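In response to reviewer comment 3 from the previous cycle, which asked for concrete evidence that the modeling workflow produces usable outputs, we include below a single protein chain processed end to end. The sequence was submitted unchanged, and the resulting structure tokens are shown without manual editing.
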Amino acid sequence: MTLQYSDAHMAEKADEAAFDIEELFFSRTDARGVIAAGNEVFRRISGYSWDELVGAPHKIIRHSDMPKGVFYILWERIKQGMATGAYVKNRAKDGRYYWVYAVVSPIEGGFVSVRMKPTSATFEGAKAAYKAFLKLEQSEGLSPEESAAAIRARLKDLGFPNYGAYSSYAIAQEMSARDAALSRMEDGRLRSLKELLPTLVELDKEQQALFAAFAKIRGIPSNMRIVASRLEPAGGPISAISQNYRLMSDEVTNHLGGFRVENGTRSLSESVMLRIYRGLFMMAASRLQREVKEVSMAALGKHAEQDGFQTEVEILTTMLDDYMIESGSVLVSVFNDVTALTRSAKDLRQLVTGLDSIRVLCRVEAGRLGAQSASLMPVINQLDTFHVEIDATLERIMSLAERIKGLVEAAMPRTFNGSLHYHSATGALSR
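The workflow returned the following structure tokens.
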């Protein structure tokens, strides 16, 4: 049966098509977004018959209150092979609306969208933001791409590095709110990953402080040589000390590469944070996926779904396995890099200890010069401050790295559980 569109058909109402928080639903489309299948909850809430749904474009349930920029981002990401979440306001056949948090995942030959009822405080913020972006689209005549750019800019202002990070945060909040509403304990692995995010923010601050501290000392050897030229003949003790300090400080600065990735363009903590967001999304999505699979299997057992539904259950099972594998792999890579970071911090600390011995020699030489060393003291005091700052910063970095490793292990999916060991020679991990 072909659904005929008309203005009357597309009329929208202010009433909500309510559904219970326990209810989960999904739909599957082909690569063009044409509906191929779904579960009975989806059909009932949408208000259409299967004859009307199957073969119809998924936009049959699109509500006009949705900003076009949201769909632009969603399609952009899933076409790149990335499962993505979004708050979506849908429209039932009779014009009523219903909100969902949808996780859309690419599969062979198309996409699957799994939906749950959103109830978190994050959802309330999203609704207000959607109104603002819709108004902006209409008043400024923004294209979907321009609207998407405005949405991304707003998310950066809120502290999210990209849309993927926001969708990860949102689904984690929704799963926590869902657990609370259903009187379930919060998932411990999700909680560990959420605790990781502020810890990584702290780590990034310490790394930036480390980079800034080393930037400050670049001019110290030159200042030391200038002072030495006034105090002693060429090649004197202070000149030799400044030369040694320059050589060792260059070595230390080069070692800072262990704290950066992507050809030095990004700090390791930034890279880890993006992967943690991805792992958080995949783990929360896998929990949702497990629930919808269990619900679907129960409905299949009761013969409550249409013929051929076994195929949908098999697809959901494969997706669940893929989610679990990806979330575990992401966390293993994080554990790997944070272990390497700890080692780099320890190595750097040893190099700084060598620098510190040169600083002590400089102070001893200043003592030998007596009153003549007055011009050297500001340089020595600067070195004192630098070494105290660096030692404290490296201590905090190592402490934060150990905490991160513990949280990663606590968050590891069951199939990845076990003690993880880093092998420096191969960069591999074992259990």
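The CA atoms of residues 60 and 394 lie 57 Å apart. We consider this sufficient to address the reviewer's concern, and the full set will be provided in the supplementary archive.
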